[in-house]
Amino acid sequence: MHKTLFGAAVLSTLASTSAHAGDKVLVAPVPAWVAPAPPVLKAESAVRFDEQVQVDGDTTTVYIDTMRQASSPEALLQMGTVTLPWQPDHGDLTLHKLEIIRGDQVIDALGKGEGITVIRREAGLERLMVDGQLTAVKHIEGLRVGDVLRMVFTISERDSALAGHVQDGLVLLPAPLKVGFGRARLVWRTANPLTVKSLAPGLTPTPKPVDATWTEIVVSLPVAKLPDAAKNAPSRFAALPLLQFTTFPDWASVAKVMAPLYAVKDTIAPGSDLAARVDAIAARSPDPVRRMADALRLVQDEVRYELIAMGNGNYVPQAPADTWSKRYGDCKAKTLLLLAVLDRLGIKAEPVMASSKRGDAVPDMVPAALAFDHVFVHAKVGEEDFWLDGTMLGSRLADIRDVPRYGTVLPMGGSIEGSKPALLALPLRAHARPDIDADLTYDMTAGPHLATPYHLTLRYNGTYAASYKVDPGPNYDEKLTSFAEKAATNWVGDTFVGKARSAWDADAAVWTLDFDGIAYPNWKYRDGHYALAVPPGLKVTYDAPRDRAAWRAIPALISDPWHARLRTAWILPDAGKGVTLSGGDPGGLDLPAATWQRRLALAGGTLSEEIVSRESGAEIAPDKASSTAKAISDAMERTARLSLDPAYPKWWDDVARRKSSPALAKARAIFDTRIADKPDDASRLTDRAWFERTLFNWAAAEADYTRAIALDASADRYLKRSDLRSKVGNRAGSLADAQAAYDLEQGNADARSTLSYELIEAGKVDEGMDLLPTDLDIATDDGLSNFLEKIDRLEQADRHDEALSMLDEALEKRGSSAKLRNARCWYLALRNTALDTALTDCNKAIELDSDPAMYMDSRALVHFRAGRLKEAMADYEAALAAEPEQTASLFMAGIVADRMGDKAKAAALSKAAKTVFPDVGHFYAHYGIKP
User: What keywords are annotated for this sequence in UniProt (predicted)?
Assistant: First the structure.
């Protein structure tokens, strides 16, 4: 089925499906039944939408009178060619007027229909639809900006498949749309009553007699603005601006008219190829459920979907023999074919009408076939019901008890005893198989400081597999890689993937995708050890705010419900020695809309997690929406935590012992393979440069940056190489790169800041200072950041007095700023002056900030300058306990240890600092501090 009530009503503004064949555009006067619209007084206000529908017997005639002003060249371009689609197999298109209104002048642009071209262009082909629609095209000559174009036409509609009934709807244009005149008018013979209903809230149509023969409903347009839709609400709560009408008295009448179209007697000829295929199914198994699954696969896999709505094809299905021989058909054809196959197999079944997108809204509509856009099969084996959709792909025996989420449907009757032609709400349950079954393994054996290779396997099952699998064909590798990158984003949080592989198991309908990749787990150093937060890797997503009074009585839905399973393994460094797990208790939800379980276990050097999420699509009652949101949020936010042994080595020591580890070799192979696959991809070289930097392979990293810049120079790549060169003491190279980055992107704040620093280092103070931002308002975050940057550059340029004066003035305004306090403390300590003031400032900064590692480093320098080596070491060690990779603290702690006579400790600290930042001593040497 194709045509829906909503779709038809919208199309009726331009076209509808109609009475009897007419493949030529007719030209005639306005019909006598039409109520005239008021005359046009001023062209400027002549915006009109007048829609009138007459129901006479089994024929519906839609009359449209529209006016629109060409208010701009863009509007003129859109209005210069008129196109009107209609279906000639069902009715006639008649043009009554085509006029240009220019001031008081009315210009006839229609004449006797000259210049009208009729074309057939099957606009739905890309959506596998062929409906025989024609389009009338008329180029409007002489239309100018400021003109008003008036178009008046009718389209009649009669569908013999409806057995004398009519059904349709009028569009009720809502505010804030403005029209000079707007009307929706429905007219019918009083002797042949209609059921009429408005889907626009707050509007109750009132019929009134026109005369002894006719009755009408008139609605002024625009109607009231439609209420804002609540997010993730059932479709029946999304208001539609429609006035529906029908002559069907009830839903049983709709089923009665449609059911004969699906009669299966004698539709499979004995001895035919189709009969042989069905008999082969029967021979394979005596189990009726197995037979049913095989029959469904036959219809899904061997008959492609294509909608044929020409002639009576909108409701009348194609014969099974034709569907089988052509090997294509729409939902009607596939349903009738499946019914015929099931009948031959001795399985009771019936056709069922459904709305694929607004199923829960069907009971609120008037009884009409147009309430539905789909048809599928209800079968019964014993006392068990099965709901089979031949238009889907990938359904197998494992999925045979899955229920399509079509809400309320209309069974039409068939061979199932006791079935009634009445609206029926389909059962709601999660799919039997996981739509996606994922296995993810992180190899963390290289430790928390380095790249973590992972392997991800995704098994897409059943209809999910058919919908998502990447089929072999042109650009297959690129498409598969793109798909894998999206999957990696969803499951791992990054797009860095290696070579993707896939396999399709047609018998099981399982598409398997697997690939290696690189992850960057966010290990944190806190409380004397490295720790990793482990939130659930598979979550229930609930996003249905009901924070408006008008929404609080609206049920909620979990969007796109699915059944998924994730098994994750983290293979831990050093076989898990000293690793502890906290917060690993099982978690779960048990709600009508979703069940979710999570289990974690730490054993044998591996942390294992299994999560199963089964979402049914059930509605969440309004009075449960808030508590459900909290329950889901609480469950999803429960985070476990892995903690390494406090003695676990720091970054520089760990790299030294991990350089030959299998995990690191695996990671390097992924980086190398990606570059080998696309040697001209600069981003892949940049990625490997980052990897080399984590290993302190400075020369290799610089080489990759250089190759990447040669392929695709960017400010970001120049800045990365500038930073690397600065770290290793290549000042000239760092300046050159900073200048190149700035030349490419002068608006890039990082490029500006880096160039400013490097120019001053090179003695070009004025040039460097000119690059600094001028917004120094310390009352704002950006202004304070700019202010501190200027202070830093002044100190770098040995303009200490100017910097200090600015800081003194700033602290008079913001004495409670920890950043300003620390800045004055730091620069006084560097200059070895006013150390008492510096100490006071640092103490205050430490009091004001919850994470004072940097400020403790500043206070340590004050103690060092004052000769209080013990206190200095205590502060450096406290800073490193919070931030062990703070290279300034490492370097200075080494100097302090040396002054205290602990040469071994001094050597270890100095080596650590220079491993992470080879030229770290350059900064301190400027202020006379050397090992």
Answer: Repeat, Signal, TPR repeat
pLDDT at res. 736: 99
In the sheet where 424-425 sits, what is the strand order? 384-388, 374-381, 348-354, 408-411, 424-425
Token digits of residue 850: 């919850």
Is-contact 845 816, C-beta < 8 A? no
CA distance 878 to 886: 11
The predicted structure's pLDDT at residue 407: 98
pLDDT, tens digit (0-9, with 9 covering 90-100), for 882-904: 999 999 999 999 999 999 999 99
Q: How far apart are CA 460 and CA 476, in angstroms?
A: 18
Distance CA 788, CA 792 (A): 6
User: Contact, 745 vs 726, CB < 8 A?
Assistant: no
Q: Which domains does the chain have, with CATH numbers?
A: 5-247 (2.60.40.3140), 253-425 (3.10.620.30), 436-643 (2.60.120.1130), 815-931 (1.25.40.10)
Contact 495, 489 (CB under 8 A): yes
CA separation for the pair 704, 806 (Å, rounded) = 43
User: Would you say 511 and 469 are in contact if contact means Cβ atoms under 8 Å apart?
Assistant: yes
Compute the distance between CA of residue 528 and CA of residue 7 in angstroms, rounded to an integer: 65
Question: Distance between CA 748 and CA 78 in Å, rounded?
Answer: 41
Quote the distance between the C-alpha of residue 827 and its chain's center: 49
Dihedral sign, CA of 424, 430, 433, 434? positive
pLDDT of residue 130: 55
The pLDDT assigned to 121 comes to 63
Scanning 169-307, the segments in alpha helix (DSSP H) are: 251-258, 273-284, 288-302
CA gap 483, 471 in Å, rounded: 12
Beta-strand relationship, 148-157 and 93-102? antiparallel
Q: What is the mean pLDDT of residues 84-98?
A: 88
pLDDT digits (tens, 9 = 90+) for 623-659: 999 999 999 999 999 999 999 999 999 999 999 999 8
Closest listed residue to residue 402, CA positions, set 531, 559, 562, 213: 562
Give the list of residues 6+ apart from residue 293 with CB closer than 8 angstroms, or none.
395, 396, 397, 400
What the block records as the tokens of 43 is: 């062209």
Cα separation of 823 and 855, whole Å? 9
3-state class (DSSP) for residue 57: coil
Nearest-angstrom CA–CA distance, 536 and 597: 10
The CA-to-CA distance between both ends of the chain, in Å, stands at 84
Q: How does pLDDT run across 258-271, given as a tens digit for each residue?
A: 999 999 999 999 99
Inter-axis angle of helices 731-744 and 749-761, to 10 degrees? 150
* Residue 150 one-letter amino acid: R
Q: Identify whether the C-beta of residue 346 lies closer than 8 Å to the C-beta of residue 177.
A: no
**Who contacts 115 (Cβ-Cβ below 8 Å, separation ≥6)?**
138, 139, 141
